[in-house]
Amino acid sequence: MKMKKISLFIMLCILGIFLVACGNTSEEGTDEKEKQEKTTEGDTTEESNTDGWVENITVLTGSEAGVYFPLGVAMAEIISEHVDGVTATGISSGASVVNANELSDGQAEFALVQNDIAFYAHEGSQMFEEVVDGFSGAFTIYPETIQIVTLADSSIETVKDLVGKRVAVGDVGSGTEANANQILAAHDITYDDINEEWMDFGDASTNLQDGNIDAAFVTAGTPTGSIQELAASADIKIVSINEDKIDQIIDEYPLLHQSRIR
């Protein structure tokens, strides 16, 4: 494997977030009073103690080739094992933007989401035309790195070289696509200037190797499994981002941070 050493990348963290039920305070007070009365009457059965619990929980993850999927599936297994009367299932999805929308719509109880995407959702900014809420952050899991990957013999050295090329920008509605748009925009590049392809990490890796695309954006924890698999069978390199552009991007999107990968 031959990998070009690039000193500058943009790093961002993700949050595991959970759905917070929003209800009328007076109704909640009435419900609580009724539960207390039932307890007073001697109703202490297990069914009473778990009344109102969601028994079947959905955990939204990401593509099966990314980090979100195995992590979300493992989290679901832990919930199922340690929470009585609850069965959790981790399912693949389009990742962060899709997850935020579906979580808000009540289609799931937990989801893995980049923290910048969760912030934009609550603000109703960037890729969200209106406020998308109904969820809160539970905990930070790990930092993710925005990587632009191409084959080692490619003529692509900088982001500007992506013009006219076939570029995988991530799944539709993924955090990867959002980050790809941010980086492209900082270089005055739009989808009109490239041949964009929407695909997950696994498909992007396969298509890079087969010569169907020229480069791919990947936002994931490092090391990233799909990139490692690609590097095992082909020489690859990481496309650099100039430091002045990194400063510009961080200034506009302060949830992003500079990092180094060697």
What can you tell me about this protein's structure?
The protein is of the alpha/beta class and 262 residues long. The chain folds into two domains: 9-13 and 144-259, D-Maltodextrin-Binding Protein, domain 2 (3-Layer(aba) Sandwich), CATH 3.40.190.10; 15-143, D-Maltodextrin-Binding Protein, domain 2 (3-Layer(aba) Sandwich), CATH 3.40.190. 36% of the residues lie in helices and 23% in strands. It is built from nine helices and ten strands. The protein has helices at residues 25-40, 46-49, 68-82, 96-104, 115-123, 175-186, 201-210, 225-233, 243-252, and strands at 9-19, 56-60, 87-91, 110-114, 135-151, 166-168, 195-197, 215-220, 236-238, 257-259. Strands 1, 2, 3, 4, 5, 6, 7, 8, 9 and 10 form a ten-stranded mixed beta sheet that branches. Helix 7 (201-210) runs parallel beside helix 8 (225-233). The protein is globular. The two termini are 14 Å apart. The model is unreliable at 1-48 (pLDDT under 50). Residues 32-41 have a biased composition (Basic and acidic residues). Keywords: Receptor, Signal. This is TRAP transporter solute receptor. InterPro entries: TRAP_TAXI (IPR011852).
- The CATH top-level class label of the largest domain: Alpha Beta
CATH architecture of the largest domain: 3-Layer(aba) Sandwich
Global shape:
globular
Content-based structural category: alpha/beta
| Share in helix | 25-40%
Give the DSSP E fraction (strand runs of 2 or more residues). 15-25%
**Largest pleated sheet:** 10 strands, mixed
User: Over the alpha carbons, how many angstroms does the gyration radius reach?
Assistant: 22 Å
Number of strands: 10
Unreliable runs: 1-48
Question: Whole-Å distance between the termini?
Answer: 14 Å
Q: Calculate the mean pLDDT score and round it.
A: 81
Taken in chain order, the helices and strands follow as EHHEHEHEHEEHEHEHEHE
For the record, the count of structural domains works out to 2
CATH topology of the largest domain: D-Maltodextrin-Binding Protein, domain 2
Keywords: Receptor, Signal
Biased composition (Basic and acidic residues): 32-41
Region (Disordered): 26-51
InterPro entries: TRAP_TAXI (IPR011852)
